[in-house]
Amino acid sequence: MGHLKLEGRPFVNEYLVTGLSDNLLTLKPAGTDHFLENHTTGVEIKWIHLPGHAEGTRLHKLLFRNLTPLTAHIQVRIHYNVIDYQCVPFVYFSPHNEAMMLCHDKSYYLIGGLGPSGGPLQYQTNETDLNKSLKSSPPHTFFQPVSQESSAWGMMYEIQLAPYGYAHLYDWEVSHDNLCALETSHELLRNLLGKKKAAVKEVLKR
Fold first, then answer.
1. What is the spatial distance between Cα 144 and Cα 128, in angstroms, rounded to a whole number?
2. Beta bridge partner(s), residue 100
3. I want to staple 79 with a disulfide (CB 3.0 to 4.6 A). Which of 7, 58, 122, 154 is the partner?
4. Is residue 4 included in any domain, yes or no?
5. Which domain range does residue 151 map to?
6. Is residue 45 part of a domain?
7. In whole angstroms, how far apart are CA 111 and each of 13, 28, 54, 120?
8. Which among 118, 114, 116 is positioned nearest to 161, based on CA atoms?
């Protein structure tokens, strides 16, 4: 197997929130963090690492609160960077899964998320300075469906917060071992249910 299996999680993630004046709100969880919070003018954000027992799989929840009497439109970017540049993976956006696929040798991760409006609106598979790109590049430059080798990648969500309202966003990473187990269980269940037929009652006309 490749480095993903041997070294565990070979990347770190960062959360960037924009859309509120010129302020940029960031969260950078460390490997041991389970809860973080931050705030800027008008919006408060909390990040929670939800506990799980599956090694190589992580689930996070972000909570947003609008502190103003006005509707707030924000953009949330989840950015990933590899830790060791000797392990630069192949990254691509999978339209079928609506997620990012991170591959190295025979190991891989499925990275995705779900916000109030569904999955990410934009995907990025190459290394980009997101902060500078927000001001200097049109949004379509973030659509990078395939990158042969990439040391950074990310996803973008748009969230609308009602006055004094709340919203939440989930993002996750699932390792190949757990994906294979899920696929096996799904296939077994599908085959089992596929052999079952619903009971049909004959209606007798009198």
1. 11
2. 93, 111
3. 154
4. no
5. 11-192
6. yes
7. 11, 17, 15, 11
8. 116
